[in-house]
Amino acid sequence: MKAYSEKILIPKREIRLGGLSDLRRYYYSHLQTILPHSHRPIRFVVTETDEDNYHCELDLILTEEQDSSLPNGESIFDFRKKTYEDSEKFNVILLIPTGIGAEIGGHCGDGNSVARLIAGACDTLITHPNVVNASDINEMTENTLYVEGSIITRLLMGRIGLQRVRSNRLLILMDKHQESFFNDEIINAVSSARVTLGLDCDVFEMVNIIESVSRYSVSGRAVGEIKALEELFDVIKKYKDDYDAIGLSTFIQVPDHFHEKYFSSEDMVNPWGGIEAMLTHSIAEVFNIPCAHSPMMTSSDIYDLELGIVDPRKAPETSSTTYLHCILKGLHRSPRIVSPTKGLGLKDISCVIIPDGCLGLPTLACIENDIPIIVVKENKNLMKNNLQEIPFKKGKLFVVDNYLEAVGVMISLRNGVEPSAVRRPIEHTRIL
């Protein structure tokens, strides 16, 4: 069993992306028939839109024909439409997709400040690990829910709800390192979280049962391939009933020179993020359990690199040995996955904030369910889609320059003030 990424070209003559219905139909009528029979999609991304086609990438779990170890479940393209909105609270989802080289939030938890800003203007902020994971730092606020990315997608698709918790019992799955120092430091990091956060956490040492190799897709997005995924799944099956959330500290193979290159280059997309997303998407999709990943340092040679003063967005990675505390803090109170009629659900989402150009299932779910989207132009990335060409309903797409302006739009929506009413010049009233 493996996880990998497949490039797909969808002609515009076949489908116009303006919601989920047409995409779901196209998947079952066409994509499903051209992909390997024993596949399970875990992520869908439109990387570029041109005059004739949607250039897409689909992350998949691929099993052997005779393998029945994956439990049956809904497809990522299945959805339930929102039937009403609960406007008692103003709850916001902040997304900064992993592995796309986002200017803000695409490095090492450098989306923390943005998350704190937005959390201060809403009742509940729902965001994913990529935004706030900064090695030993995670500065999310008390009203922030730390939710794995594919789980947020399912929330927007109306397939699940989220139940707040006081705490989770956590299991860390740790690769066995040839240098015992690194395993000792991971256990020390867990012990530190136990005495400071009050975390209930155990560690399971694995004998490097999966092979994770980082690569870049044609679009430049960080992806990769994970082999022997069934070995990891067997461990999770054995222990999942005793724990509420799963954390991972495993090796990700990248060329040795990538470590120095990443810290010296402003433009290099974080090569570890794509594999991390594949791993957590796979686990969350199959086992319905909160999860997050921290890459394990491969050797003391990497640890001893003299990097000097680096880009502030990458600095947390130079100051950590295990990169682990951020996920321990996040998973401590990560909400449980419940049925869509319980807990915080699709009806409770007031708006979604995304970087410019990002087009995937969350964006399409917002179009389908009339959820306002705020697009931030300053957060540049590799995705090449003009969202203003997508058929949003009037008043459901707001394109802003930066996150400060995004918060202004949020407050307008929260208070029922049409944003154009506070700008000048103001248009004449329409006469129909």
Task: Explain what the structure shows.
Strand 8, helix 5 and strand 9 (200-206) form a beta-alpha-beta unit. Strands 10-11-1-3-2-16 form a 6-stranded antiparallel beta sheet. A 6-stranded parallel beta sheet has the order 6-5-4-15-17-18, with helices on both faces. It starts with a strand and ends in an 18-residue tail after the last helix. It contains 13 helices and 18 strands. It has a domain at 2-62. By secondary structure, it is α/β, with parallel strands linked by helices. The model has no long low-confidence stretch (mean pLDDT 94). It has helices spanning 21-34, 112-119, 129-132, 149-156, 180-196, 229-239, 257-264, 273-287, 300-303, 315-318, 325-332, 361-368, 403-414, and strands at residues 2-11, 39-49, 53-62, 91-94, 124-127, 144-146, 161-163, 169-175, 200-206, 211-216, 222-227, 245-250, 291-295, 336-338, 349-355, 359-360, 373-376, 397-400.
